[in-house]
What we know:
The structure holds 2 protein chains of 2 kinds.
Chain A: E1 7-8, H1 10-17, H2 21-29, E2 36-38, E3 41-45, H3 46-56, E4 61-68, H4 73-85, E5 90-101, H5 103-118, E6 122-126, H6 131-139, H7 142-145, E7 161-167, H8 172-185, H9 190-210, E8 217-224, E9 229-236, H10 241-245, H11 255-262, H12 278-288, E10 292-305, E11 308-328
Parallel strand pairs in A: 4-5, 5-6
Antiparallel strand pairs in A: 1-3, 2-3, 7-8, 8-9, 9-11, 10-11
Helix pairs in contact in A: 1-2, 4-5, 8-9, 9-12
Chain B: E1 2-5, H1 6-10, H2 17-30, E2 37-40, H3 49-60, H4 65-71, E3 72-75, H5 79-103
Parallel strand pairs in B: 1-2, 2-3
Amino acid sequence: MDSESKVLNVNEASEFLKISRAMLYRLIKDGQIKTIKIGDLTKIAIEELERFINAQSQQPAIKVKGVWSRSNLEDALLAVQRATDEKVGLVIIDLSEAVFVTPTGLAMLCSIIDRTTWRGGNVRIKDPQNEEFKVFLKSIGFWDYLHIATSPDIPKNIEPNVQLKRLQNLDIALTGKLVEFIESSISVSPGVSYVLSMAHNELIENAMVHSQSRRGCLVCAQSTPKSKLLRLTVLDEGQGIRSSLMESYPKIENDIAAIKLAVQEGVGARKTEDRGLGLHEILKFVKVNDGELTIISGHGKVIFKREEVLEEKLKTNWSGTIVEVRLNQDKESFYRLSSEERTF
Amino acid sequence: MININIKDHYGKEIGGREAGQRLRLFLEDNWSSTDRFEVDFDQNKIASISFFDEVFGKLVFKYAPSELKTKLVLKNIDPLDKELLNSVINDRSKGKNKTDENLK
């Protein structure tokens, strides 16, 4: 290595560490990484970056192995709890052995990263070894979301994804783009495409209105043609379902009961308002498309699948709500009322 | 008859509870002054439960579905939007009947 390549500029150093420029500046400001001034230029020695990496290797890490999805929730929850409760300065997300991430898994990861940085902590990503997965992460918007510059090209045959976004309000135009993208990428029945738009609009509006989160919500969607699945996830870091229903239903026993109540017709945050149809309608339409609706909030996780309701009490608390809609993209059926029930 | 073109009123990208509320208030304000409203959806796909609930679901609490059917003519509505709209009205009617039963 020649002497010139022993020092990096800020862009190169952030790429070297797989962190954003903003995070690198914060580490520099905190004195965790020492810089060299050459005139007006800020440079960092590779030796210093390697020392920093070695020092961090003792820090807690979230190890993502294989597929990261809604089933890894407990790991994610523990990581958030550790990062927030124990005031861990740095959370390492180790993707070296990861091969795939679902929209829910990705939204959870990005929420962990955001929650850590909002409280002043830092996150470092340990790169995936699997090159295909690295490309996939680019296609689903992970590196862009973290403002980390990566340069793998996205091949044309990559499975279609709607890149992860944090939204601050309901953007109908975005729903249009999402559906246009899905329809142009895969063969999907009009009913499935409609349910996807409907769920997208409704879940974002729910997150904005009921969560009381100042941070908006994370939205991500993905199609896996091999398994004929379309997945849409909306995640917020707000008050959670039980808390939002407490005014109307003060006797709700736990988070699972709150989730099951929230999908019933007419159940809303305020008894004085005739609201509370959104999740109920989504569930009706998801069921006839052979889909699944998963809701995670507080200590509760409930999966609605056909007539089955699968409940799980989580050991740790997810402050906020995650809703995942899974649809069978080949399904042709659509929810229809009988003629005597139709007004129009 | 009062004609309402959804696209003219709300633009191409319509949806959500707020837009629904604006349309419902317009309908309510003019309910007694006209025999009929013709609402032209101009083939726009709405796909919003909140929008349909805010307009038609809430009107169910004031007027019977039969009156809605007489008073409102829905033109060029997407067939799937029509399914959703009927589903919302049906659910709200059930909810209203339950409330009426409880009040007896």
